[in-house]
Write a structure and sequence with these properties.
Layout: H1 14-22, H2 28-31, H3 40-47, E1 54-59, H4 63-72, E2 76-82, H5 86-97, E3 102-104, H6 108-111, E4 118-121, H7 129-137, E5 141-144, H8 152-165, E6 169-171, H9 179-190, E7 197-203, H10 224-228, E8 238-239, E9 248-249, H11 265-268, H12 270-283, E10 292-298, E11 303-304, E12 307-308, E13 319-326, E14 330-335, E15 341-346, E16 350-353, E17 358-359, H13 361-364, H14 375-379, H15 392-403, H16 411-430, E18 434-437, E19 442-443, H17 447-450
Parallel strand pairs: 1-2, 1-4, 2-3, 4-5, 5-6, 7-14
Antiparallel strand pairs: 7-15, 8-9, 10-13, 10-18, 11-12, 13-14, 15-16, 16-17, 18-19
Helix pairs in contact: 7-8, 8-16, 9-12, 12-16
Bound molecules: nicotinamide-adenine-dinucleotide (NAD).
Length: 465
């Protein structure tokens, strides 16, 4: 397999880097200043050559795929699009390929093609693990949206297949490529500015509830049975919201708020902020896995034995607070009741980082004590950095495909932190605390809870490895 060279910016100008490293960047305003702005035009110009584009097949052409491909389109040739909604695949093909891409209802047609080496998966969460595993087995490299799994067992399967196939997989946790915010926060941690970490907090926001969402006719353009795929066969539901573009439904976008298709906020935003917490602990050498989880959550419906009693409305958590204990008196708090972001507290200092700001005394201290020149690069595993932060995560993936390297959002660390999100979900559903054996990847002494480590797949949608 050959991959066309993409001209990535290998290293950054030293003066620009120094300016960035010295800046306090304590406010959202500073964040909007691209710290390597002078290199962007040449990167964009070099990449305009059609020859430098890589052919990609897109599976799931909804909101996020539109955003992602729009971001990276200058490097990509969209040659195939699969979606179970004809309107979505047709609109996507027209927008990103001028109608040239082949359109499919069944994504397996893309995996069968020898002329496509890279795949983007942006289906709903219940449709990530199966096509990702099949894509790897078909010899494709994949940029797959978060969260990669619905269960801890699915994570084991993905790790196994990735090890066996050696395919390159980037998880769509793009916060790992925001140099001015999350990567810089990690550089502070890795440089010891916070000391030993005592607590990390992921504030992931509250989740919505809904009234009854009535059964509705299936839109003629939608193959509802394949949209459901591995999950139980249930009716399509839809409730228009006058004055709002977004209806209440158990389908497009709103699947996030139903446990059949998602883990709710715990995996939707947990996949981003718990990931940063986990990254910080690991960079600080605090690598041991979790021991236990305690806390509580509110659901918008009644639960019995871990399952919602009412089937006709949103059922994932609305409010939550969990404490995950790690060896050495370290804890991770996942909460919904405060400003979205990550608070990292060490015995020498504390920082808060979100999508809009990076603040705290260790950040202010950068004026007098800048980080070493290679601090950001080290955290970014020495990989080239594309300094348009909107595009950086895709640039990282494409570079790693070309060079056969592990991307910045790797499968292994994603699974470590997603296990924690899934455990919190099990604890929320059962309404009790859990002890965890991280080596065996089992809940200790709780058979009922252990049954939530996997889910049955609907007949015809099993995962074959
Ligand atoms: N990284 C981020 O910040 C971020 C932001 C938003 C969404 N996401 C993730 O992206 C994924 C998609 O979310 P979205 O908001 O775009 O949802 P969406 O409902 O808008 O899009 C999903 C698309 O997948 C299609 N689909 C469903 N089953 C399919 C199948 N078997 N084969 C092909 N297509 C299928 C649907 O018809 C729909 O067009 C989710 O996993 C979500 O967590 C990530």
């Amino acid at each position: 397999m050959t991959h066309p060279k993409i001209p990535f910016q290998a290293t950054a100008p030293t003066t620009a880097r120094r300016m960035f490293l010295k800046s306090t960047v304590a406010t959202g305003a500073a964040v909007s200043v691209p710290y390597f702005g002078s290199t962007q035009s040449s990167f964009a110009a070099e990449s305009k050559s059609k020859n430098a584009k890589m052919s990609i097949g897109v599976i799931g052409a909804g909101g996020m795929a539109n955003g992602n491909i729009n971001t990276a389109k200058e490097w990509l040739d969209v040659v195939a699009v699969a979606d179970v909604d004809a309107k979505h695949r047709e609109a996507f093909g027209a927008k990103f390929s001028g109608g040239k891409a082949d359109l499919y209802e069944d994504y397996r047609a893309i995996l069968d093609r020898d002329d496509i080496d890279i795949i983007h998966i942006a289906t709903p969460d219940h449709w990530h693990t199966k096509p990702l595993i099949e894509a790897m087995l078909a010899g494709k490299d994949v940029y797959c949206e978060k969260p990669l799994t619905l269960t801890i067992d699915e994570g084991k399967k993905i790790r196994e297949v990735q090890k066996k196939t050696g395919r390159i997989v980037q998880v769509g946790t793009q916060q790992r490529s925001t140099f001015n915010l999350f990567v810089k926060a990690m550089a502070l941690v890795a440089d010891g500015r916070l000391g030993r970490i005592q607590q990390v907090q992921a504030a992931i926001g509250s989740g919505p509830s809904s009234p009854e969402v009535p059964v509705a006719p299936i839109p003629k353009e939608l193959n509802w049975d394949r949209w459901l795929g591995p999950t139980p066969k249930v009716p399509y539901r839809y409730l228009a919201q006058p004055g709002s573009q977004r209806a209440k439904t158990n389908c497009h976008f709103e699947f996030r708020w139903w446990y059949d298709y998602s883990g709710g906020k715990l995996t939707d935003w947990g996949a981003h902020h718990v990931d940063i917490c986990n990254w910080a602990l690991k960079l600080n050498g605090q690598t041991a896995g979790p021991l236990s989880i305690s806390g509580s959550a509110k659901h918008p419906v009644e639960f019995q034995d871990g399952y919602p009693v009412q089937k006709d409305r949103y059922n994932t958590t609305t409010q939550l607070r969990f404490t995950v204990k790690y060896p050495g008196d370290t804890e991770l708090i996942i909460r919904s009741d405060t400003r979205s972001g990550v608070l990292i507290t060490g015995d020498k200092g504390r920082i808060f980082v979100s999508r809009g700001s990076l603040t705290g005394k260790p950040v202010e201290d950068l004026v007098s004590q800048p980080l070493p020149e290679d601090a950001i690069s080290k955290v970014y595993k020495g990989l080239p950095m594309e300094f348009n932060e909107r595009k950086a995560h895709w640039a990282n993936f494409l570079h790693c495909v070309r060079e056969r390297k592990e991307p910045i959002s790797d499968v292994h660390s994603h699974m470590q932190m997603l296990n924690v999100c899934h455990l919190a979900g099990i604890s929320a559903r059962l309404g009790r605390d859990l002890q965890w054996d991280d080596t065996a990847e089992q809940i200790v002494g709780d058979d009922q809870a252990n049954r939530f480590l996997s889910r049955p797949y609907r007949e015809g949608y099993e995962i074959e490895m």
